[in-house]
Amino acid sequence: MINKKQTMDKRKTIALVAHDNMKKELLEWVMNNSEKLTNHRLCATGTTGSIIADKTNLIITKYKSGPLGGDQQLGAKIVDCEIDCLIFFWDPLESQPHDPDVKALLRIAALYNIPVATNKATADFIISSPLMNEEYERKLNIYEGYFNRHINL
């Protein structure tokens, strides 16, 4: 494994996602933290982004709705180091038709070492961290062995 570093700007790109039963809670969290969030770039899956944009003055880059590929779009942005933080209020009691996409998004976030909040308490800790307003060097693990495997056919 090779360690590489990637510097996050002082102004972070934060992805906002919420399952249907959690959209109200995420909206309330965004409204309570809107002053802090204005210092950052925001993006969201489609429905969540539309709700937040309609109820706040925040500028949101919107992708597709999660079940229509929005989770995968955010995952691709994480892989390209274009998203610095994921705030994903997911519903642990409700099965989702796109559960594999949700799992893939969370796996990519962990693999690319970005902060992830899956509930209000964790989101509060992340947004309150002094690191949110400073440059931050995050370590990226390059799994060289994974790419150098040979498959015998």
Automatic annotation (TrEMBL):
Under which EC number(s) is this enzyme classified? Answer: 4.2.3.3
GO BP, one example?
A: methylglyoxal biosynthetic process
Swiss-Prot/TrEMBL catalytic activity:
dihydroxyacetone phosphate = methylglyoxal + phosphate
Task: Name the PROSITE patterns on file.
Answer: METHYLGLYOXAL_SYNTH (PS01335), MGS (PS51855)
Gene3D superfamilies xrefs: Methylglyoxal synthase-like domain
Provide a Gene Ontology MF annotation, just one: methylglyoxal synthase activity
Q: Per the database record, which ranges form the MGS-like domain? A: 6-153
Q: Which residues form the active site?
A: D71
- One GO CC term, this protein: cytosol
Q: Kind of enzyme, top EC level?
A: lyase
Keywords attached to this Swiss-Prot or TrEMBL record, sorted alphabetically, are: Lyase
Q: Which domain of life is it from?
A: Bacteria
Which InterPro entries does its entry note?
A: Methylgl_synth, Methylglyoxal_synth_AS, MGS-like_dom, MGS-like_dom_sf
Which amino acids does the record list as binding substrate?
H19, K23, T45, G46, T47, T48, S65, G66, H98
Q: Which SUPFAM superfamilies match?
A: Methylglyoxal synthase-like
Family assignment?
A: Belongs to the methylglyoxal synthase family.
Please describe what this protein does. Catalyzes the formation of methylglyoxal from dihydroxyacetone phosphate.
The UniProt entry, under HAMAP family, shows: Methylglyoxal_synth
Q: Which PANTHER family match?
A: METHYLGLYOXAL SYNTHASE (PTHR30492)
Mind telling me what this protein is named?
Methylglyoxal synthase
